[in-house]
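Entry for the shared binder. Reason: the reviewer on the internal report wants the predicted structure included alongside the sequence.
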Amino acid sequence: MVTIENRRFSIPQICESGQCFRLDPTGGDTYELIAGDRWLGIRAGEEETVLFCTQEEYEEFWKRYFDLETDYQQYLDRISGDDLYLTEAARFGSGIRILRQDTWEMIITFILSQQNNIRRIKGLIRALSERYGTRCRKPDGTAYYAFPDVQSLAAASEEELREMKLGYRSRYICGAARMIAEGGVDLGSLPEMEYARAREELIKLPGIGRKVADCICLFALHQMDAFPVDTHIQKALDAHYRDGFPFEQYQGCAGVMQQYIFYYDLKGETK
């Protein structure tokens, strides 16, 4: 068990920030998270967060996964006091961190996210994992399913995926999995690339355009200049940044600002 002070770290906010679809509330202040083939129980208190893992597991994986070695106050300090909207959005979502998730998992996740809602995305990921992923055990002995690997989805047929209600995304998932399995895109090289090149490489995959590539760049590759624009973000940009968002001011942390804006538009006080 590892206890973390809630300094710019909020599991409830991260859960609702649109970047992770296998982090779920389980009642009260508890959550569970599946990352690849790993399972984590979480208790999110007001002052502290408890991760139900060993210190070794925390140091080897979860500390980096939650980006807990980064001081997010430095990003908040970059926000201009004249930008009242972003100042309030950042205050409202100041516990959000950019997770360091698996690239392959994010490719499939954000292909599934297109023209979809969060509840349905979660259901599709769960169904894919139960059919093609490895059955694992939680500490209490109950089962969970790892996210399926490249080879498992490359071997799946489009017809099988359509039977699971994946619709037109079935073709994209089969195509992306087979292209990666055959070496058409090398996932191992992506973390070494600069943002623009990594995005260009991802767009080679079926079903991936600029917005989805930006999501993968930000939430898997930790390219902090990636700024995915969906309907929530576009609405905020149109309302508050008619002359354009000041990307130059937020070089190296634009993606963090995107998350503050997204979360505020989704869950803000006006809702």
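Summary line for the report: The two ends are 36 Å apart (CA to CA).
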